[in-house]
Amino acid sequence: MKSNSSGPELDQETRTIPHWYDPESDGVAITEGAGATVTDADGTTYLDFVASLYCVNAGHDNDRIVEAITDQLARIPYVSSAKENDTRSKLAAELASVAPEPLTDVTFSVSGSEANELAIQIARETTDASKILTRWRSYHGSTYGAANLTGDPSTRNAVQSHASMTGGAKFLPPLPEAFDAEGEELAEKAADHLEFVVKNEGPNSIAAIVLEPVAGSSGGYPAPPGYFERVREICDDYDILFIADEVITGFGRCGEMFAMQTEGVDPDMITFAKGVTSSYVPLGGVIMREEIADAVRDGGTDVGQTFAGHPVACAAGRAAIREYEDGLIDNVQSIAPLLQDELEMLAEDHDVIADVRGRGFLWGVVVEDPDTGEPFANSWVDDDEENPVADVVETAKENGLLIGLGRPDYQLMISPPLCIDETDVADAIEILDDAFATVFA
Fold this sequence. Notes:
Layout: E1 30-34, E2 37-40, E3 45-48, H1 51-54, H2 63-75, H3 86-98, E4 103-109, H4 112-127, E5 131-135, H5 144-149, H6 153-159, E6 168-171, H7 176-179, H8 183-201, E7 206-211, H9 227-237, E8 241-245, E9 269-272, E10 284-289, H10 290-299, H11 311-349, E11 353-359, E12 362-367, H12 388-398, E13 401-402, E14 404-405, E15 411-414, H13 422-439
Parallel strand pairs: 3-13, 5-6, 5-7, 7-8, 8-9
Antiparallel strand pairs: 1-2, 2-3, 4-10, 9-10, 11-12, 12-15, 14-15
Helix pairs in contact: 2-11, 3-11, 8-9, 11-13, 12-13
């Protein structure tokens, strides 16, 4: 039996195993935050252009959200997810009011992974089909069910190394490199490919197609114009549900409350998490069409989560929505063209940047060897290669800028809080420019 009174005092950092842990990397111990910046334990301040994990949409010190959390804690800190609660009900109504019009009902989860699992469970029950189609080069979570949806092999293989999941099939994303096409031709080829997969999997076996409106950590790529219209048609023709995974893209990140609203196409369900509370408190869930909700209510539910729809999280969500409506989404619409222009100018200045793609405040920067047109390194293929793109991330960090490494890791991810201004963009681009110049000198 271990004694608590003898032996050396343990370093607190040795007692925690971080997620996505790399024992060879140098982490950052974040202790404070304000607006679009965070400060580490040594007092170094960073411009946070990944919003911690594509999620702190309202910035790191939003008073309205903090006050809402405090008020809810003082009133009642927890109500069972099996019971009704006024704050929970009000947030559900507000989510329905800001979602695409056909979506009327909400059920809550704790995380984005669990939101996606909840959505596919509902889809399977309401369609009496089992198969879920998702794209290669996608990320939908790292719990067992969500990892089965995920097209990222590093996540899927790690989770399924000892227990494989069933009921999932994959199709190609609408990327130029996948179909050797762009624009309308790309939309047509990618949608035709999806329909081919649907026919060959057997439409009656498919419950849902799950898609990110704009790719999240897998590269920030949007679909070409016309693609989602065809996806909607395919789902309607074969009686398949269309689920939009908006865990990253929701709540203003792509320039509207939900990214599907930038496409003009209505899904059957939206999954959400992250930005719903600006990640001040964990919360996720599913917004669905009334007929799907009615089917769930008629059959009842035999499963649940203790912390789903936690009242404190729901209070944070109500406050966050007000922040987004009161100017943060307007700020994305105002600043996004500048961010896009600056990233494209960065690409012109560095021949290793092969492409810049995204929407709103969600962008991927693709890095390739200009002599070969191939990535310098891809850990999905060979994890022993030195990756200069990771060096860009590290060099930027050393100079005060936090950015993300994409999936696959020959991409950078740019995903700042929605509260940034023009000066923040200029500072971030200057640091990125220096980082590319240093690494690829």
